[in-house]
Fold this sequence. Notes:
Largest sheet: 6 strands, mixed
Structural class: alpha/beta
Distance between the termini: 48 Å
Amino acid sequence: xxxxxxxxxxxxxxxxxxxxxxxxxxxxxxxxxxxxxxxxxxxxxxxxxxxxxxxxxxxxxxxxxxxxxxxxxxxxxxxxxxxxxxxxxxxxxxxxxxxxxxxxxxxxxxxxxxxxxxxxxxxxxxxxxxxxxxxxxxxxxxxxxxxxxxxxxxxxxxxxxxxxxxxxxxxxxxxxxxxxxxxxxxxxxxxxxxxxxxxxxxxxxxxxxxxxxxxxxxxxxxxxxxxxxxxxxxxxxxxxxxxxxxxxxxxxxxxxxxxxxxxxxxxxxxxxxxxxxxxxxxxxxxxxxxxxxxxxxxxxxxxxxxxxxxxxxxxxxxxxxxxxxxxxxxxxxxxxxxxxxxxxxxxxxxx
Length: 351
């Protein structure tokens, strides 16, 4: 039987910088669900779809870029890789490094990584180092390490990460038969919006989609350097995955928004949390908080009358809710305790 998940390198080999001799390192990433939302479509007057990247092997979109970054590191003869991470990158780098037999070093900002993500890095055997500082300071150290030692940085500053992540745009076009009219997504380090725009443009240039989407990226209000126009020294947001004050792909995000007729906006933590709960309770999609920035942005644009009725909208949900379940647990009531009797269970259910 032919496997249904070949991984993004085999699926899109002709669009990626690999050869027949490239030693592919894959965990079967990609081919993630594109789920139509009847509720959000009715609420906004658009045809709304959610691409659930939480279905990737380590639970986030990072796997798309990591399979190629690690593959190219192995091809180049590397023995070790390093990344700075608020969580998802570390989980992905650790998993793919273990598959490839590489040493993986992870630099995390002090006290700012969700335990679910940290657990992934640890269980895969990564050498985790906590840096007394924020993500941007940790990333600066990785760059200096790469300059001074035989180690490859696998953050989104690595061009192969961008190349791999662009395949998400290919999948959207393949599923819909064309590009959407609007593409909405969270923005943290800004590599993902940069890569999606690259993917859409490549498909358009090759005649595989007749149109291009307006790209809208959403930062958390307390961590919105691109919106403010300057780095944020101490970014603050409950959405840890986008708690970044000086995005590495800042210019790429601005280009994607400007060239597509879109925009980089911000959304409040309150709106992110409301969208997070709405997605879980009405759509059956359990995403991490940062992912819900795209849904919060959708509702914001709709309320402002920025979306043309009847148009197709794709929102990217970047990671699985199990990455950071604390908010799901904190917002839920404690389960009632009853005796193992039908009447008591029925009463607890409201019958």
